[in-house]
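Morning. Coffee machine broken again, so started the prediction first thing and wrote up yesterday's gels while waiting. Chain of 545 residues, entered below exactly as on the submission form.
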Amino acid sequence: MNLKQSRRGPRLVLLSITVLVLLAGLIGAPAAAVGQATLQPTETAVPLSTPTAVPTSTPAALPAVNWSDVSVYRQAMKPAFASDVDPFATANRYLIVARLSIETDAIIRGAERVRFTNRTPDVLNEIVFRLYPNSPVLAGRMNVTHVTVGSSVVEPVLSALDTVMTIPLQQPLSPGRAVEMLLDFTVTMTRGLDASYGRFGFVHNVVSATAWYPTLSVYDIGLGWWKSLPSPQGDPAYTESGLYDVRLTAPADMTVAMSGVEIDKTENADGTLTHRGVTGPMRDFAFQASTRYVVDSTEVDGTRLNAVHYKDPANPTVDATDAVMKYAVFAMQTFNKAYGEYPFKEFNVVENPTPTGVEFPGLVQIAENSWVKGNDFLEITVAHETAHQWFYSLIGNNQVEHPWLDEGMARYSEFVYTRAAYGEAAGNEYINRYQRNYERYTGQGLPDMPVDEPVRSFTPLAYGVIVYNKGGLFVVELERELGRDVVDRALKEYVRRYKYAVVTSADFKRVFEDVSGKDLTALFEKWIGGFQNQAAPAPETTAVF
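Came back before lunch.
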């Protein structure tokens, strides 16, 4: 739907989606806020609770896997992109069998069969997994109770507050060689937990699960395995694209939305349902589950768009599901045209207790408090989180060390959306308001930092203004220097060249120089920084898409 026909212009509010920095001088902003930036209480680490003790249990038997057969994963792709899964036969591979039960807390008991192929030039003596629920950022509890490498039981080494699990290898793993591992695990989400902007928790009868399974870390060439603790603000994970086959058993009265597509649903004698989901190349497998959910669906450019929303909204007369569908459809159409076609068969937009919006591959959360007709944040939140399906999901980056690469580009995508929906004048005004806020920030003597710094380098206010706003404005500056046509062509090439891969700022710069034919070193150093810590990750695949 062409939004120009339905509304005269967007409610031009500025939203840092993860930090939710509410900036001064906006249309509709309270008079008291004019001239002064305000900040919603920022995300802080949640004190670790003492979850209910989880009785040990025997996980479901893990079926054997023919790792060379990737045909099932093609079901998660639009037909034109089905062959994209083929090179990922030798990427990170997960088969996960898990059961979600609602006890005093939400408990996941699971096991996974993981195949890791050494795609680095180095001989590896260890493999590192991340146990993200153990971090203070997520404040859950994950226990890994059994690890097998090949046919041998091994004792992993835990570090960094039990968020890093290092598995020693009895035989060094040469480049090109693969190893299969089996892990049993349990995860506890304490009732009432709502951590890391709602990405992980059990609140309002909604289970939100991301990085809920032992997750392979990333081996950066020249640096080794990534073992850093995430910061309280920002996104906590850094992962590579892989293929997932997940069999999740949950109470039959819970609706489950997940990354990828559900290809099978089995009724069990104990009153549960087993949902089998598979993905194309994705960097995480997230799911949401609740007895409160219902699903409305539509088609957009060959993708099934699911709006997963409450059947018991606090005020049904202002439920915004229709608006969410309209905004998400237009966002997908706009970004398909601007960046390249979304290759996956499904995309879920999920109402959630999060205070903002959070992105995962194939699934985004939208705050229940925004899922209201007339809410100023709703439209731009949907657009921003949908843009992350290109910048974070398709093109990955270390979100802890280089957050601007996805958040700055999602902010820029808000500009792209606003221009497409409401015209050049509205788009320019939206950009100018960010520009004026950035100038107010620097005019107060606050540090005008380079954009490409780790999350930990920024105060909460600087994180929103520099990473999000200055990051987005940098691409606008590239439009002014190179012309919008060159930027449009460069962004399409960026997605084409690095789809499913992990990038650094140097990769971003290289594409713009290749397309423009210009040396952009001075401009990038002025805005982005000097490209420290730009080690390349292990290559995801040798294929070029």
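The first helix runs from residue 321 to 339. Going to sketch it on the whiteboard this afternoon.
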